[in-house]
Amino acid sequence: MLPDASVTGAGNGDRRARSGGRSATPRHHPLATWARLATGAVGGAIMALSLPPWGWWVLAFPGAALCVWAVSGAGALTGPGHANDARSASTGISLSLRRVREPLRGALRRASAGLACGLGLFVPGLWWSLHFNWYGAAVLMIAESLFITAAAALVPPGRAGIVALPGLMTVAEWLRWRWPFGGLPPGSVALGQVSSPLAGTARLGGEILIVFLVWVTGAGLLAILESAWPARWPGSLRRAVADSTGTIGQTDVAEDIGGSGNVRGIEARDGFAGERPEGGAARHRGPLFAAGVLTIVAVLGITFAAAYAPDGGRAVSHVRIAAVQGGGIRGDSALQVPAATVFNAAVAATERLLEEECRNGIAGHAVHDTEDGSAAVSPSEVTVARRPGATAGRHCTAASRRSNPDLVIWPEDTVAVDGPFTGSYEEAELSGFARSLHATLEAGVTRPVGVASGENFSVAIAPSGKVVSRYEKMHRVPFGEYVPFRSFFSHFANLNEVPRDAIPGKGPPILATPAGRLGMMISFEVFFPRQGRDAVRSGGRLLIVPTNTSSYAKSQMPGQELAAARLRAIEEGRDLVQAAPTGYSAVITNRGKVVEVSVLGRQQVLVGAVALRTGDTVYERTGDLPVLLLCLLLTVAGWVVDIRSRDETVAARNERRSVPNANGLVA
After folding, report:
1. How does pLDDT run across 526-554, given as a tens digit for each residue?
2. Strand 467-472 and strand 501-502: pairing?
3. Percent of the chain at pLDDT above 70?
4. Which of 29, 374, 449, 647 could form a disulfide with 453 if both were Cys (CB 3.0 to 4.6 A apart)?
5. How far apart are CA 593 and CA 189, in angstroms?
6. CB atoms inside a 10 Å sphere around CB 92
7. pTM to 2 decimal places
């Protein structure tokens, strides 16, 4: 016959005694764990919908809130001490092992939630990479998700995680832009905010500040919602969620009062749900709500201040530009489209520009090439002869020069030569256009260097027809323009699409031309904020982006590239012109407004006036360092909050155990 529990302290106390003095520690509920992973994946996917081509920027904030909830609530530390007191060596060893094992388990659970968030964001956000091959795309999506995974593993558990998570996620994004292989910035959540009120904050802290504000807003929304959530949920649901947050088992789950087996309650130091000790809800909800509101107010204040921050200053002069888009079929690789086809399409578009400018200036007179290279004007429809070398003699009369562009921009990869560019047929054609239009002409050139290497550069040709400046692309596209560790990766993939490795340039990213100093970002380089800063610090008064996104059949990658160009314009306070063979070509103001944009695949020439500026923005002066320091401060603050909270929990438990129970015994 068993003794009476009310006398001997059997029941829960007896179960603790049989387990070596430890209270029973319920495991995390499997259903709740899967719910956390699903929530993280959904949150990441919602954030992805803010990116181009969808562009639903407002969804980034609830998506971030779901990811914060999934990560910071998953695998909370169980706290130091589930034992009453270490009364034996074996109990002490077990306690020490638990103190090491439980934090590792918590970090693993947070990392898995972070991986779910990363995959939810980058699978749709980098969907364009499937155009090349599925296995490479899968590796890319997983590799980019690991940055969020690592950041999530370092997040302190529970409410302390709300403080530290925005900073850690921002640093992870910053590192993703730099490593490996020079970084891969596409897919950044900041690209989805170019049409939102947050876009202007880029002139204060760059793209990295936008990333930080998205995560901070998500954390603030979560704090507000959690403070308003019901304190008590239905039993099984409440317990499942409490299990998943690690709230059960952080202290004794059920302590006897006088050995009677009565339950004192579940402490929820780190969790977002569950029963709290009497009066605990009121203590926690007020400060949490206030912190959430203050966070949202701070974000709104930064956004308001950014609208009045320096934006490059007034224009010192204006130039008339023409961005040439030859048009053509999208979705084919460079090996599938002959180089001559791309070149001839750009030539045809430029001839249309020349004809239109001549019409405007000569009013019904045509320009014909003569055998001696001079121009003959006749009162007939404008025609321009197409024969080798004909462009060298074409020009319009002085009456038309007032309407001619000052700067003509050709896209990347439109001129492919087999040998030196100087003295080539292509150089003669471009020089002829520069003289005919009385304009500076910029063009993207590629050429092989030996068997295994090649160059990708831009040249500037003055109105006199002479090459006056050259810039070679510095940021190469990994597995697109070069293959790192080629001998290794050749065992896993067909590398015939990238037969040569592009030689990286050394900078500075500037073309010095008669039209002004042009800050250069060739294609992939537009995704890197530091490229824009280097261009402006080198004296760039106008940003130029010659690019080639013709390999992508859909609009996702061109759309993300256009968003990146808008961010660079805002960050540096410079007007920006982008030219692509099949789109998007665009004219963008220093505040990120798209004045003109082309239609994908169509032959077009965008003509407009842009400003040359010399002023600075806050970001151009300070760079990423202030935001990174703020992220570090929040991360440290989060861990300090967590450590102090655990210490207070241990002290409270020890004080409770020192109080005699109903039998006059100390627990």
Report:
1. 999 999 999 999 999 999 999 999 999 99
2. unpaired
3. 73
4. 449
5. 19
6. 13
7. 0.82
